[in-house]
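Weekly modeling sync, notes
Attendees: S.R. (lead), two postdocs, one rotation student

Agenda item 3: backlog of single-chain predictions. S.R. asked that every request posted to the team notebook include the full sequence so nobody has to chase files. The rotation student volunteered to paste the first one in as an example of the format we agreed on. Action items at the bottom.

Example entry:
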Amino acid sequence: MKKQAFAAAFLAGALVLSSCGASNAIKGAGIGAGAGALIGAGIGRVAGNTAIGAAIGGVIGGTAGTLIGKKMDKQKKELEKDVKDAKIESINDGQAIRVTFDSGILFATSSSSLSAASQTTLRKFAANLAEHSQTDLLIVGHTDNTGNDRINDPLSYNRAESVRNFLAGQGIASSRIKVEGKGSHEPVADNSTAAGRRENRRVEVYILPSKDMVKAAQDGTLK
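Predicted structure, as returned to the notebook:
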C-alpha cells in the first residue's frame, strides 16, 4: 500500500513538473507540502541518513528552497553539457538531481567491473561533483529480472559500489556517498521486452543537498 501511495505521489509530482516551464529556482520557492514533499519523504527513507533526510525527507521551502533550487539548476545544466551518456533529471521540486546511467554503458554483461570507455564519462561526472562539494550522493544499482535475486541483488550493489569506488578514486569524499543495490525489485519498464529490460538495467546517482548546504541556504549564505 505504501508503495502504491508513493508511486501515485511520484506521478503527481512528475505531472506538476512537466506541465510548467519554471526553473528549479522558482519551483524551490513554493515547496514544502503536497506531492513534492511525499516524493521527498520516499527518497529520504531510501537514503537513510540525516544529511539527506533533512533536505529530501522534508522539502525546503521559502528563500532557502529558492537558493537550493538555483544551485541545482546550475549543476544540472553543467551536467547536461558535460555528461552526454546519461539521463539528467530534476527531482524533488528541483532540489535534487537524478543521473541515470545505462548499465550497458558502464559494465559488460553480468560484470561489476567498469568498462574502459565508461571511465571517461565518469571522470567528467566526478569533475562536476568536485565543483559542487556541498552535495551528498546516493548511488543505486538496478538489474532486470533475468536470473534470480541471489544473483541480481549483489550484482546491483556491486555495480553501485564500483561507481562509488571510481568516484572516490577521482577525489570525491566517500563520506558524501551512500550505496544501495535494488536488484530487479524497482523496474521502470516492462521486463517482458528486450527494450524494457535494458531500461531496467541502470545505475542511478541522486545528487542531494547536504546538511551543510541546507544550513547555508537557511542562513542565506549559499552561493
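Discussion: group reviewed the output briefly. The beta strands are 87-91, 96-102, 135-142, 177-181, 202-209.
Action items: rotation student to repeat for the remaining queue; S.R. to check formatting next week.
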